[in-house]
């Protein structure tokens, strides 16, 4: 699961951001004590940072510079400052993107997803978050998301969806799915896989992902 550190001194804004990110399956931490932001960074070890510029003690530019001495972790600046000079300074000092306040939460999520995809690649087999179009799968917590909607999966449903996402550009045979789920398909009733597929389809449909799992007659399944 990707971890995102929120460095924003307005508790209302930081709370809204945290709630939205967690609905998308991200693990978050909000900085509460602003004189030791570097300590929060080193203890949490985030995959991405959301950084306000106007902060108590030292501004976001200062902390960006300190973090850049340690890491190339992606940093998105979020600020009410709207001058070209501020944007240029943010990027030149190590920021990866800049969002002006007030901003759309959908825009923030899109930028977070894009930067994480570039930095870490959703297709990496070791990651706990997988994406296909607007669908996100949290493998660790067995949850699938579409926008703000979410559905809990069983272990087998999670394995099926993981395999389909990782092979989204090809057909996955029933035999291959059964081997992944039960080691030896000869001990499994073929109907058991069908039951799991149908349950998965109903859960995806309930969160707005109808028809995502397509049956290829005589071959297996694939994502649309």
From TrEMBL:
One GO BP annotation of this record: regulation of DNA-templated transcription
Keyword Phosphoprotein: yes
Transmembrane segments: none
Gene Ontology cellular component terms for the protein in this record: cytosol; protein-DNA complex
The protein, known as: Stage 0 sporulation protein A homolog
Modified residues (4-aspartylphosphate): 52
Gene3D superfamilies in alphabetical order: 3.40.50.2300, 6.10.250.690, Winged helix-like DNA-binding domain superfamily/Winged helix DNA-binding domain
Lineage: Bacteria, Bacillati, Bacillota, Clostridia, Eubacteriales
A Pfam family it matches: Trans_reg_C
DNA-binding region: 127-224
Originating gene: graR
Residue intervals of the Response regulatory domain: 3-116
